[in-house]
């Protein structure tokens, strides 16, 4: 299946997303799960240990500072569904302003991150990685806060894992997901232009007020 950035965006808009069987498999296929993973933006769970790590500091959040590096790091594992075709498509969507990375940096460089696709008020989380303790958790905590402030109403995680569930992700039926997606697509949201919050204390405070 050959995809263009425009076809890819249409797929997301109707509730499906592409994957490859492996890094070396050039073929792509659409996925439409019966049950969909989402992060309720008012239900992110900040554990005491994660809050302690945030207060300790020693890291800097960033948006789109190294999009290609974030996608490459997400694909740098034994088994991955991100092949060369998807990497190129995500890069094209990034150039069009529809794909973004939320990153965690420290004195050793890029150490954690999440990347995803944006349409209206929907953020479609594609993958994440961690190269330091809690690197992906830090990225998710700051990302959820950013999405709320930027006007997003849907954070799609596609599937759910024990790791995501421990942070507050839930599963909903396909029909309910599509209803939420339809509503989110009608909302304006501003991922890249919304100011980045770098103060972890403010992120913790807002999360406590909304969760």
Describe the structure.
The chain has eight helices and nine strands. Strands 4-5-6-7-8-3-9 form a seven-stranded mixed β-sheet, sandwiched between helices. A two-stranded antiparallel ribbon has the order 1-2. α3 (67-75) packs antiparallel against α4. The protein has helices at residues 5-13, 48-56, 67-75, 84-95, 135-150, 162-166, 174-185, 200-210, and strands at residues 17-19, 29-31, 35-38, 60-63, 99-106, 109-119, 122-130, 154-158, 170-173. It is 39% helix and 24% strand. With 211 residues, it is of the alpha+beta class. The protein has a single domain (5-210), classed as Aminopeptidase (3-Layer(aba) Sandwich).
Short recap of the structure:
Keywords: Acyltransferase, Cytoplasm, Transferase. Strand 7 (122-130), helix 5 and strand 8 form a beta-alpha-beta unit. This protein is of the alpha+beta class.
Low-confidence stretches: none
Helix content: 25-40%
CATH fold title: Aminopeptidase
Rg to the nearest angstrom? 16 Å
Secondary structural class: alpha+beta
Query: What's the count of strands?
Result: 9
Distance between the termini: 41 Å
CATH class: Alpha Beta
Q: Treating each run of at least 4 consecutive H or I residues as one helix, how many helices?
A: 8
Mean residue pLDDT = 94
Return the domain count: 1
Assign the CATH architecture: 3-Layer(aba) Sandwich
| CATH level-4 homologous superfamily | Leucyl/phenylalanyl-tRNA-protein transferase, C-terminal domain
Per DSSP, what share of the residues sits in E-state strands of 2 or more residues?
15-25%
- Using the alpha-carbon principal axes, give the shape: globular
């Amino acid at each position: 299946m050959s995809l263009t950035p425009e076809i890819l965006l249409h797929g997301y808009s109707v509730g499906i997303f592409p994957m490859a069987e492996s890094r070396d498999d050039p073929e792509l296929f659409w996925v439409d799960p019966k049950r969909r993973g989402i992060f309720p933006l008012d239900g992110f769970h900040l554990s005491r240990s994660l809050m302690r790590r945030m207060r300790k500091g020693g890291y800097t959040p960033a948006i789109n500072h190294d999009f290609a590096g974030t996608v490459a790091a997400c694909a740098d594992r034994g088994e991955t569904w991100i092949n060369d075709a998807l990497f190129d498509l995500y890069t094209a969507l990034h150039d069009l302003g529809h794909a973004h990375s939320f990153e965690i940096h420290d004195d050793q460089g890029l150490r954690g991150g999440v990347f995803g696709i944006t349409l209206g008020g929907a953020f479609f989380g594609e993958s994440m990685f961690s190269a330091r303790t809690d690197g992906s958790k830090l990225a998710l905590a700051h990302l959820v806060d950013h999405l709320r402030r930027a006007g997003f109403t849907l954070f799609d995680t596609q599937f759910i894992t024990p790791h995501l569930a421990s942070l507050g992700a839930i599963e909903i039926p396909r029909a309910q997901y599509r209803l939420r997606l339809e509503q989110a697509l009608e909302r304006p949201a501003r991922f890249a232009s919304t100011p980045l919050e770098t103060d972890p204390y403010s992120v913790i405070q807002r999360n406590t007020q909304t969760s």
